[in-house]
Amino acid sequence: MDMIDPFGRTISYLRVSVTDRCDFRCTYCMAEDMAFLPKKDLLSLEELDRLCTVFIEKGVRRLRLTGGEPLVRKNIMHLVRQLSRHLESGALEELTLTTNGSQLARFAAELADSGVKRINVSLDTLDADKFHKITRWGHLDKVMAGIDAAQAAGLKVKLNAVALKDFNDAELPEMMRWAHGRGMDLTVIETMPMGEIDADRTDQYLPLSLLRASLERQFTLTDIPFKTGGPARYVHVAETDGKLGFITPMTHNFCESCNRVRLTCTGTLYMCLGQEDAADLRAPLRASEGNELLADAIDEAIGRKPKGHDFIIDRRTSRPSVSRHMSVTGG
Ligand code: SAM
Protein backbone atom coordinates (compact mmCIF):
# COMPACT_ATOMS: atom_id res chain seq x y z
CA MET A 1 0.00 0.00 0.00
CA ASP A 2 1.63 3.25 -1.15
CA MET A 3 1.76 6.22 1.18
CA ILE A 4 -0.21 9.03 -0.43
CA ASP A 5 -0.62 12.36 1.32
CA PRO A 6 -3.71 14.62 1.31
CA PHE A 7 -2.37 16.48 -1.74
CA GLY A 8 -2.01 13.30 -3.81
CA ARG A 9 1.78 13.12 -3.47
CA THR A 10 3.25 9.62 -3.20
CA ILE A 11 5.85 9.36 -0.44
CA SER A 12 8.71 7.23 -1.69
CA TYR A 13 11.78 8.88 -0.18
CA LEU A 14 12.88 8.66 3.45
CA ARG A 15 15.73 10.64 4.94
CA VAL A 16 17.01 9.39 8.25
CA SER A 17 19.09 11.52 10.58
CA VAL A 18 21.02 8.82 12.45
CA THR A 19 22.59 11.26 14.92
CA ASP A 20 22.26 14.96 15.69
CA ARG A 21 26.00 15.13 16.46
CA CYS A 22 28.56 16.44 14.02
CA ASP A 23 32.32 16.88 13.98
CA PHE A 24 31.93 20.25 12.19
CA ARG A 25 30.17 23.40 13.37
CA CYS A 26 29.29 25.09 10.07
CA THR A 27 28.40 28.67 10.92
CA TYR A 28 25.15 28.72 8.90
CA CYS A 29 24.03 25.40 10.40
CA MET A 30 24.87 25.39 14.10
CA ALA A 31 25.94 27.58 16.98
CA GLU A 32 29.44 26.72 18.19
CA ASP A 33 28.17 25.70 21.59
CA MET A 34 25.45 23.19 20.73
CA ALA A 35 23.54 21.03 23.20
CA PHE A 36 23.13 17.56 21.71
CA LEU A 37 20.73 14.82 22.71
CA PRO A 38 21.82 12.54 25.53
CA LYS A 39 22.95 9.24 23.98
CA LYS A 40 20.24 7.34 25.91
CA ASP A 41 17.54 9.16 23.91
CA LEU A 42 18.77 7.77 20.61
CA LEU A 43 17.05 4.85 18.95
CA SER A 44 19.32 1.84 18.69
CA LEU A 45 20.59 0.81 15.25
CA GLU A 46 18.23 -2.18 15.41
CA GLU A 47 15.30 0.14 16.08
CA LEU A 48 16.31 2.42 13.20
CA ASP A 49 16.53 -0.63 10.95
CA ARG A 50 13.06 -1.78 12.01
CA LEU A 51 11.59 1.67 11.36
CA CYS A 52 13.25 1.95 7.93
CA THR A 53 12.06 -1.54 7.05
CA VAL A 54 8.44 -0.62 7.81
CA PHE A 55 8.78 2.48 5.61
CA ILE A 56 10.21 0.33 2.81
CA GLU A 57 7.30 -2.10 3.17
CA LYS A 58 5.02 0.91 2.86
CA GLY A 59 6.54 2.08 -0.43
CA VAL A 60 9.80 3.92 0.29
CA ARG A 61 12.15 3.28 -2.67
CA ARG A 62 14.98 5.66 -1.78
CA LEU A 63 16.62 5.99 1.58
CA ARG A 64 19.22 8.57 2.52
CA LEU A 65 21.20 8.49 5.77
CA THR A 66 22.12 11.90 7.07
CA GLY A 67 22.62 13.72 10.36
CA GLY A 68 24.35 15.46 12.10
CA GLU A 69 27.22 13.64 10.50
CA PRO A 70 26.05 10.09 9.76
CA LEU A 71 29.58 8.66 9.74
CA VAL A 72 30.23 9.71 13.35
CA ARG A 73 27.39 7.51 14.66
CA LYS A 74 29.03 4.57 16.39
CA ASN A 75 28.84 1.37 14.36
CA ILE A 76 26.95 3.08 11.53
CA MET A 77 28.22 0.54 9.00
CA HIS A 78 26.22 -2.12 10.83
CA LEU A 79 23.04 -0.23 9.92
CA VAL A 80 24.20 0.30 6.33
CA ARG A 81 24.92 -3.41 5.93
CA GLN A 82 21.57 -4.34 7.46
CA LEU A 83 19.67 -1.97 5.19
CA SER A 84 21.50 -3.22 2.11
CA ARG A 85 19.43 -6.43 2.25
CA HIS A 86 16.56 -4.34 0.87
CA LEU A 87 18.71 -3.42 -2.12
CA GLU A 88 19.45 -7.09 -2.72
CA SER A 89 15.77 -8.00 -2.52
CA GLY A 90 14.90 -5.16 -4.92
CA ALA A 91 12.50 -3.54 -2.42
CA LEU A 92 14.78 -0.50 -2.22
CA GLU A 93 16.07 1.22 -5.33
CA GLU A 94 18.74 3.30 -3.68
CA LEU A 95 20.56 3.58 -0.36
CA THR A 96 22.70 6.66 -0.11
CA LEU A 97 24.09 9.17 2.33
CA THR A 98 24.93 12.83 2.80
CA THR A 99 28.21 13.44 4.56
CA ASN A 100 30.67 16.20 5.31
CA GLY A 101 33.40 13.82 4.08
CA SER A 102 35.57 13.98 7.20
CA GLN A 103 35.36 10.22 7.82
CA LEU A 104 34.97 9.08 4.23
CA ALA A 105 38.54 7.91 3.75
CA ARG A 106 37.81 5.27 6.43
CA PHE A 107 34.39 4.20 5.20
CA ALA A 108 34.28 4.67 1.41
CA ALA A 109 35.27 1.15 0.42
CA GLU A 110 32.86 -0.45 2.88
CA LEU A 111 30.02 1.79 1.73
CA ALA A 112 30.61 0.76 -1.87
CA ASP A 113 30.81 -2.86 -0.79
CA SER A 114 27.42 -2.54 0.94
CA GLY A 115 25.62 -1.51 -2.24
CA VAL A 116 25.85 2.28 -1.86
CA LYS A 117 26.35 3.66 -5.38
CA ARG A 118 26.40 7.39 -4.90
CA ILE A 119 26.86 9.84 -2.06
CA ASN A 120 26.55 13.57 -1.52
CA VAL A 121 29.49 15.37 0.02
CA SER A 122 28.90 18.84 1.45
CA LEU A 123 31.69 21.23 0.53
CA ASP A 124 31.33 25.00 0.53
CA THR A 125 34.81 26.12 -0.51
CA LEU A 126 38.09 24.79 -1.92
CA ASP A 127 40.17 27.23 0.10
CA ALA A 128 41.63 25.53 3.20
CA ASP A 129 41.51 28.66 5.40
CA LYS A 130 37.99 29.55 4.39
CA PHE A 131 36.98 25.92 4.89
CA HIS A 132 38.25 26.01 8.45
CA LYS A 133 36.50 29.33 9.02
CA ILE A 134 33.07 28.17 7.77
CA THR A 135 33.16 24.71 9.39
CA ARG A 136 34.93 26.03 12.54
CA TRP A 137 36.33 22.52 13.24
CA GLY A 138 36.90 20.99 9.80
CA HIS A 139 40.07 20.38 7.78
CA LEU A 140 39.86 20.50 4.00
CA ASP A 141 42.64 17.96 3.40
CA LYS A 142 40.65 15.27 5.23
CA VAL A 143 37.58 15.93 3.11
CA MET A 144 39.67 15.87 -0.06
CA ALA A 145 41.16 12.53 1.00
CA GLY A 146 37.61 11.32 1.62
CA ILE A 147 36.48 12.38 -1.87
CA ASP A 148 39.52 10.66 -3.40
CA ALA A 149 38.75 7.47 -1.48
CA ALA A 150 35.08 7.58 -2.50
CA GLN A 151 35.90 7.96 -6.17
CA ALA A 152 38.57 5.27 -5.94
CA ALA A 153 35.97 2.94 -4.42
CA GLY A 154 33.69 3.57 -7.40
CA LEU A 155 31.14 5.74 -5.59
CA LYS A 156 29.55 8.48 -7.65
CA VAL A 157 30.07 11.71 -5.73
CA LYS A 158 27.90 14.80 -5.93
CA LEU A 159 29.02 17.95 -4.17
CA ASN A 160 26.58 20.17 -2.29
CA ALA A 161 27.54 23.76 -1.56
CA VAL A 162 25.44 26.22 0.39
CA ALA A 163 25.67 29.53 -1.48
CA LEU A 164 26.77 32.20 0.98
CA LYS A 165 26.92 35.87 0.09
CA ASP A 166 30.42 37.36 0.20
CA PHE A 167 31.80 34.00 1.30
CA ASN A 168 31.79 31.60 -1.64
CA ASP A 169 29.74 33.31 -4.36
CA ALA A 170 32.83 34.47 -6.26
CA GLU A 171 34.41 31.04 -5.92
CA LEU A 172 31.48 28.95 -7.15
CA PRO A 173 32.41 29.07 -10.88
CA GLU A 174 35.86 27.71 -10.02
CA MET A 175 34.37 25.05 -7.75
CA MET A 176 32.05 24.00 -10.54
CA ARG A 177 34.93 23.72 -13.01
CA TRP A 178 36.88 21.66 -10.50
CA ALA A 179 33.94 19.36 -9.68
CA HIS A 180 33.02 18.80 -13.31
CA GLY A 181 36.67 18.22 -14.18
CA ARG A 182 36.65 15.34 -11.70
CA GLY A 183 33.38 13.88 -12.94
CA MET A 184 31.28 15.19 -10.03
CA ASP A 185 28.03 17.13 -10.31
CA LEU A 186 27.62 20.17 -8.09
CA THR A 187 24.43 21.38 -6.44
CA VAL A 188 24.11 24.81 -4.88
CA ILE A 189 21.66 25.39 -2.05
CA GLU A 190 19.99 28.49 -0.64
CA THR A 191 20.52 28.93 3.07
CA MET A 192 17.37 28.20 5.07
CA PRO A 193 16.27 29.85 8.33
CA MET A 194 16.50 26.80 10.61
CA GLY A 195 17.64 27.03 14.23
CA GLU A 196 19.44 29.79 16.10
CA ILE A 197 23.01 30.35 14.90
CA ASP A 198 25.61 32.87 16.05
CA ALA A 199 25.37 34.93 12.82
CA ASP A 200 22.68 36.98 11.08
CA ARG A 201 21.27 34.92 8.21
CA THR A 202 20.30 38.02 6.26
CA ASP A 203 24.01 38.69 5.83
CA GLN A 204 24.61 35.18 4.45
CA TYR A 205 21.58 34.70 2.23
CA LEU A 206 22.21 34.66 -1.51
CA PRO A 207 19.17 34.12 -3.78
CA LEU A 208 20.23 31.60 -6.42
CA SER A 209 18.45 33.60 -9.12
CA LEU A 210 21.34 36.11 -8.71
CA LEU A 211 23.96 33.37 -8.84
CA ARG A 212 22.40 31.88 -11.97
CA ALA A 213 22.33 35.27 -13.69
CA SER A 214 25.98 35.81 -12.89
CA LEU A 215 26.96 32.30 -14.06
CA GLU A 216 25.09 32.88 -17.31
CA ARG A 217 27.50 35.70 -18.11
CA GLN A 218 30.34 33.14 -18.22
CA PHE A 219 28.69 29.79 -19.04
CA THR A 220 25.98 28.38 -21.28
CA LEU A 221 23.37 26.84 -18.99
CA THR A 222 20.58 24.70 -20.43
CA ASP A 223 17.70 23.44 -18.26
CA ILE A 224 17.49 19.65 -18.34
CA PRO A 225 14.83 17.29 -16.91
CA PHE A 226 17.46 15.24 -14.99
CA LYS A 227 16.23 14.20 -11.49
CA THR A 228 17.80 12.31 -8.63
CA GLY A 229 14.64 12.07 -6.53
CA GLY A 230 15.42 15.21 -4.53
CA PRO A 231 14.37 18.85 -4.93
CA ALA A 232 17.26 20.05 -7.17
CA ARG A 233 16.55 21.42 -10.63
CA TYR A 234 19.48 20.83 -13.01
CA VAL A 235 21.15 22.60 -15.88
CA HIS A 236 23.79 21.26 -18.24
CA VAL A 237 26.87 23.47 -18.46
CA ALA A 238 28.21 23.43 -22.03
CA GLU A 239 31.73 24.67 -21.22
CA THR A 240 32.41 22.02 -18.55
CA ASP A 241 30.05 19.31 -19.83
CA GLY A 242 28.74 18.74 -16.28
CA LYS A 243 25.51 19.16 -14.35
CA LEU A 244 24.77 21.98 -11.94
CA GLY A 245 21.80 21.66 -9.58
CA PHE A 246 19.90 24.46 -7.87
CA ILE A 247 18.01 23.88 -4.60
CA THR A 248 15.91 26.99 -4.11
CA PRO A 249 13.64 26.62 -1.06
CA MET A 250 13.58 30.40 -0.61
CA THR A 251 13.12 31.83 -4.11
CA HIS A 252 11.18 28.97 -5.67
CA ASN A 253 9.98 26.01 -3.67
CA PHE A 254 8.97 22.78 -5.34
CA CYS A 255 6.72 21.51 -2.55
CA GLU A 256 4.09 20.41 -5.07
CA SER A 257 6.34 17.53 -6.09
CA CYS A 258 7.66 16.70 -2.60
CA ASN A 259 7.99 12.94 -2.13
CA ARG A 260 9.91 13.00 1.16
CA VAL A 261 9.54 12.61 4.89
CA ARG A 262 12.27 12.83 7.52
CA LEU A 263 12.96 10.64 10.49
CA THR A 264 15.17 11.74 13.38
CA CYS A 265 17.43 9.58 15.53
CA THR A 266 14.83 9.69 18.33
CA GLY A 267 12.07 8.33 16.11
CA THR A 268 10.32 11.62 15.41
CA LEU A 269 8.90 11.92 11.91
CA TYR A 270 8.86 15.36 10.27
CA MET A 271 6.52 15.48 7.32
CA CYS A 272 8.07 18.75 6.09
CA LEU A 273 11.58 20.18 6.51
CA GLY A 274 10.13 23.65 6.95
CA GLN A 275 7.29 23.03 9.44
CA GLU A 276 7.23 22.20 13.15
CA ASP A 277 4.53 19.51 13.03
CA ALA A 278 5.88 16.04 13.76
CA ALA A 279 4.76 12.55 14.75
CA ASP A 280 6.31 10.37 17.43
CA LEU A 281 7.09 6.91 16.08
CA ARG A 282 9.18 5.79 19.05
CA ALA A 283 6.17 5.05 21.28
CA PRO A 284 4.40 2.80 18.73
CA LEU A 285 7.77 1.22 17.84
CA ARG A 286 8.39 0.25 21.45
CA ALA A 287 4.77 -0.55 22.38
CA SER A 288 4.70 -3.92 20.65
CA GLU A 289 6.87 -6.36 18.79
CA GLY A 290 4.62 -6.35 15.74
CA ASN A 291 4.59 -3.44 13.32
CA GLU A 292 0.83 -2.74 13.12
CA LEU A 293 0.85 0.18 15.58
CA LEU A 294 3.83 1.66 13.78
CA ALA A 295 2.23 1.32 10.37
CA ASP A 296 -0.94 3.02 11.68
CA ALA A 297 1.09 5.87 13.21
CA ILE A 298 2.92 6.37 9.89
CA ASP A 299 -0.37 6.47 7.96
CA GLU A 300 -1.78 9.00 10.42
CA ALA A 301 1.36 11.17 10.04
CA ILE A 302 1.34 11.05 6.23
CA GLY A 303 -2.30 12.16 6.42
CA ARG A 304 -0.99 15.36 8.08
CA LYS A 305 1.77 16.16 5.57
CA PRO A 306 1.42 19.90 4.94
CA LYS A 307 1.19 21.47 1.52
CA GLY A 308 4.57 23.14 1.87
CA HIS A 309 6.90 25.31 3.87
CA ASP A 310 6.99 29.07 4.19
CA PHE A 311 10.57 29.98 4.99
CA ILE A 312 11.31 33.70 5.25
CA ILE A 313 14.67 35.39 5.70
CA ASP A 314 14.22 39.05 6.40
CA ARG A 315 15.75 41.65 8.71
CA ARG A 316 12.44 42.31 10.47
CA THR A 317 12.12 38.70 11.66
CA SER A 318 15.24 37.79 13.56
CA ARG A 319 13.81 34.45 14.71
CA PRO A 320 14.32 31.42 12.45
CA SER A 321 11.20 30.13 10.64
CA VAL A 322 11.82 26.71 12.15
CA SER A 323 13.32 26.47 15.63
CA ARG A 324 15.19 23.16 15.14
CA HIS A 325 18.58 23.11 13.46
CA MET A 326 19.15 21.38 10.13
CA SER A 327 21.25 18.83 12.02
CA VAL A 328 18.08 17.46 13.66
CA THR A 329 16.42 16.51 10.39
CA GLY A 330 19.50 16.38 8.17
CA GLY A 331 18.50 18.48 5.19
N1 SAM B 1 26.86 16.28 8.06
C1 SAM B 1 26.31 15.96 6.78
C2 SAM B 1 26.78 16.95 5.75
O1 SAM B 1 27.56 17.83 6.08
O2 SAM B 1 26.37 16.82 4.60
C3 SAM B 1 24.80 15.80 6.75
C4 SAM B 1 23.95 16.78 7.50
S1 SAM B 1 24.04 18.46 6.95
C5 SAM B 1 22.90 19.22 8.07
C6 SAM B 1 23.18 18.38 5.41
C7 SAM B 1 23.29 19.56 4.49
O3 SAM B 1 22.56 20.63 5.03
C8 SAM B 1 24.71 20.07 4.28
O4 SAM B 1 24.94 20.20 2.89
C9 SAM B 1 24.69 21.44 4.91
O5 SAM B 1 25.57 22.32 4.26
C10 SAM B 1 23.26 21.83 4.74
N2 SAM B 1 22.75 22.85 5.65
C11 SAM B 1 22.91 22.93 6.98
N3 SAM B 1 22.26 24.00 7.49
C12 SAM B 1 21.65 24.61 6.44
C13 SAM B 1 20.82 25.76 6.31
N4 SAM B 1 20.46 26.48 7.36
N5 SAM B 1 20.39 26.07 5.07
C14 SAM B 1 20.73 25.32 3.99
N6 SAM B 1 21.50 24.22 4.06
C15 SAM B 1 21.97 23.87 5.27
Automatic annotation (TrEMBL):
Organism of this sequence? Mesorhizobium opportunistum
**In its keyword annotation, does this UniProt entry include Endoplasmic reticulum?**
no
Quote the record's binding site residues for GTP. R15, R64, T98, K158, R260, V261, R262
Q: Where is the Radical SAM core domain?
A: 6-231
Under what name is this protein listed?
GTP 3',8-cyclase
Task: Output one GO MF annotation.
Answer: GTP 3',8'-cyclase activity
Query: Which lineage is the organism of this entry classified under, starting from the top rank?
Result: Bacteria, Pseudomonadati, Pseudomonadota, Alphaproteobacteria, Hyphomicrobiales
Question: What Enzyme Commission number(s) does the record list for this chain?
Answer: 4.1.99.22
Q: Where does [4Fe-4S] cluster 1 bind?
A: C22, C26, C29
The biological pathway it contributes to is: Cofactor biosynthesis; molybdopterin biosynthesis
Q: Which gene encodes it?
A: moaA
State the free-text cofactor note.
Binds 2 [4Fe-4S] clusters. Binds 1 [4Fe-4S] cluster coordinated with 3 cysteines and an exchangeable S-adenosyl-L-methionine and 1 [4Fe-4S] cluster coordinated with 3 cysteines and the GTP-derived substrate.
